[in-house]
Amino acid sequence: MSMFSHIEGGQVLITQKGIYQEAKLYKRGEELFISLKNGFARLLTNNLTTAPNVRWKEIEGISYSVTPEGPREVIPTPAAQPARKKLRAV
């Protein structure tokens, strides 16, 4: 079992030394990561990552919000059920 969960349909556009690539998107807890050759790099604010010379440009396939710690996946809350009126026997 992996410590990182793949986000189905999620991908990230990254650049490394002027070369643009698509990377698969993963999460661990609330933090978002990309898969690189030697492991995973966490996405940080200002389009930075924890890997040197790797920056992220765009995230697709998920809803996310940018926080001071980096982008986080927005988990939709279930819609509230409309209240039903109780029927009374006549």
Which class best fits the helix and strand makeup? Answer: mainly beta
- Which sheet architecture does the biggest sheet show? 5 strands, antiparallel
Order of helix and strand elements from N to C terminus: EEEEEEE
Helicity, as a percent range = under 10%
Task: Write a short abstract of this structure.
This protein has strands spanning 5-16, 19-28, 31-36, 39-42, 54-60, 64-67, 70-73.
How would you explain this protein's 3D organization?
- There is one protein chain.
- The protein is mainly beta.
- It has one domain (5-73).
- Helix content is 0%, strand content 52%.
- It is built from no helices and 7 strands.
- The chain has strands at residues 5-16, 19-28, 31-36, 39-42, 54-60, 64-67, 70-73.
- Strand 3 (31-36) and strand 4 form a beta hairpin.
- The model has no long low-confidence stretch (mean pLDDT 86).
Indicate the topology.
Layout: E1 5-16, E2 19-28, E3 31-36, E4 39-42, E5 54-60, E6 64-67, E7 70-73
Antiparallel strand pairs: 1-2, 1-5, 2-3, 3-4, 6-7
